[in-house]
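[job 0412] stage=complex_fold ligand=2-acetamido-2-deoxy-beta-D-glucopyranose status=START
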Amino acid sequence: MFTTPIKTLALLGLASAAAHAAVVTYNWNITYVNTNPDGLMDRRVIGINGQFPPPAINVTLNDTLVINVVNQISEPTTLHAHGLFQTGNNQMDGPSMVTQCPIPPGANFTYTIPIKQYGTYWIHGHNKGHYVDGLRAPLIIHNPAETYHYDEEYTLAFSDWYHDEHAVLLDEYLSIFNPTGAEPVPKSALINQMLNTQFLFVPGKVYRLRIINMSALAMFHIHIDGHDMDIIEVDGVDVQRTTVKTFPISAAQRYSILVTAKNTTTNNFLIHGDMDPEMFDTVPDTLQMNITGTIIYDAASPLASEELIDWGEFDDAALLTPVVPMATTPADKQISLTASFQVMDDHINKATFNDITYVAPKVPTLYTAVSMGNLSSDPQVYGTYTHPLVLKHNSWVDIIINNNDAGNHPFHLHGHVFQVVGRGDGVYDGSTPYPYFNTTNPLRRDTVLVPSLTNVAIRFQANNPGVWFFHCHIEWHLQAGLATTIIEAPESMSGVLTVDQTHLEHCTDLGLPFSGNAAGNQGLDLTGQNIGPNLLPGKFTSKGIVALFFTVLSAVAGLATIIWYAQDDELVPSEEGKETK
Ligand SMILES: *[C@@H]1O[C@H](CO)[C@@H](O)[C@H](O)[C@H]1NC(C)=O
Ligand SMILES: *[C@@H]1O[C@H](CO)[C@@H](O)[C@H](O)[C@H]1NC(C)=O
Ligand SMILES: *[C@@H]1O[C@H](CO)[C@@H](O)[C@H](O)[C@H]1NC(C)=O
Ligand SMILES: *[C@@H]1O[C@H](CO)[C@@H](O)[C@H](O)[C@H]1NC(C)=O
Ligand SMILES: *[C@@H]1O[C@H](CO)[C@@H](O)[C@H](O)[C@H]1NC(C)=O
Ligand SMILES: *[C@@H]1O[C@H](CO)[C@@H](O)[C@H](O)[C@H]1NC(C)=O
Ligand SMILES: *[C@@H]1O[C@H](CO)[C@@H](O)[C@H](O)[C@H]1NC(C)=O
Ligand SMILES: *[C@@H]1O[C@H](CO)[C@@H](O)[C@H](O)[C@H]1NC(C)=O
Ligand SMILES: *[C@@H]1O[C@H](CO)[C@@H](O)[C@H](O)[C@H]1NC(C)=O
Ligand SMILES: [Cu+2]
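[job 0412] stage=complex_fold status=DONE, emitting structure tokens
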């Protein structure tokens, strides 16, 4: 059984009778569990305290969340609270080798997280593919003064499910025998890591449904038979109430919707999460593509017939408006990152940003930042293969994410919500001013989908000193290296950020250095840094290809297209073996 979280009330003085903050403590032993969540296959999964699924975490604004982790699995692990800003608290963010050494088997780590925001989040393993094996749970933060009124709430966490463990799948995926980079295809979809979830509705009441996509790969389209959905929250940001029939949700994104219960109990209704087959290379006949939950008005009532829904177009940034406006400020710095998949000189199909595939450093990047003195502002100390981007304190930054790949990718920035300020087709080559489509209170979120062969511009202020991972949230693509490391305001970290001594002991236990540059050396000597595979010798870089594309296109359009595709086939095997035509 789960031990109930322990709440300690600490009254914050006498100034405000209403304001109070609790320390909410969860004791989480991370353990293996044998179970059969999709009813198709018994297997070993990663759970909490011998139970599966892991319990949701439920706290209130201004609480302090404490999670006492004991690692009882046979691999080092970590936890990341997805979407939390962790201001001044970077060491609790969790990505392995970015902000901490992973917790060795048998060791303990206490995550202490002051809760300064509210909304719908989730917490998941951030070492290897641990969340694919089940180490993921909703993290719900209540606000005593919610923006919208509702009577009750439920959380629906959608996830995809595999029958093999992540390590087996990863070996097959990152293999010379998988030159097209076809991702492992899940076997089923689950809601709250179970089948047949039911949600009781009482006539006339208003329900808040918190929808979380905890998938490794799949994208789902959500709809509810017989009911409209009013979107009110996106990734922790309250938005103007907007009615929709259906909406898509990519890995790691969250939406809250308000649903008004019917006045009668004559029918029950299905909630649908339909996987988008576009995400998959091949769709096996056995795949349980569509998952449903049931809204129960009266257990004795029949199910209403299913509605056919046209998924249609859904542009989150065009449709949804934050309740609390935030104007944009023109960027001080524009960074262009082009994502593509390429067979590298290790003959394995890897994911790259600007031709660099991410490889973890020897020293967690945060520990490099706090131990290198004034050299911490020099990107070189973080190593070549962490793909470091150093930002000045309080500067405004645009990242133009170019998706030069046949698949769609949801990109996530730790430590921030960003504004979605632009979208365009193809790779932005800088020859014309960037087509910002909205700089008046644009949508803010922490995970944005960038469709195939398009670009999206995100904007944020570098006001959160720390090391923040920026990566694709399709777990397989992160493992294939689709990540960069943002080192934000290194000159302002000292005195603001601390590192707990016990965390450093975990590095020692694992034989890893915890100070110095990415190689564990002093100064700019990077001898011995972890190096990744590089582009095959003589191959065009993706930037080069883009240049070629634009040049020849303007010359002889027809011929150029043929050259482009010929080059593409030869040089840049498209993801999932899909044609980009
Ligand atoms: C949370 O803390 C902030 C700052 O101390 C305070 O202004 C606010 O009223 C508190 N909110 C709640 C719900 O306690
Ligand atoms: C965690 O494991 C330890 C050691 O086996 C055990 O003593 C403790 O009761 C477990 N805690 C929970 C919450 O299950
Ligand atoms: C979550 O916390 C809120 C506020 O403390 C409480 O009302 C609610 O019952 C809790 N929900 C669960 C599922 O524990
Ligand atoms: C880890 O925490 C558990 C439970 O609190 C405790 O029994 C154990 O002694 C701790 N282990 C270490 C290595 O500190
Ligand atoms: C979750 O995201 C993945 C990847 O973007 C997507 O394929 C899947 O359908 C999404 N699931 C839901 C319930 O929307
Ligand atoms: C339920 O009945 C009330 C009162 O007759 C009406 O105002 C409301 O629109 C009805 N709600 C729905 C969902 O039909
Ligand atoms: C899943 O649902 C979609 C409609 O949303 C439908 O087109 C498709 O055929 C369904 N797939 C299966 C396997 O039932
Ligand atoms: C800009 O975004 C806001 C908020 O999403 C919206 O209200 C406004 O209509 C948008 N303006 C344009 C020009 O798209
Ligand atoms: C860094 O600090 C050292 C000694 O404190 C000083 O000699 C050096 O000039 C500084 N370098 C820069 C780039 O500020
Ligand atoms: Cu991706």
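Confidence is low (pLDDT under 50) at residues 9-17, 543-581.
[job 0412] exit 0
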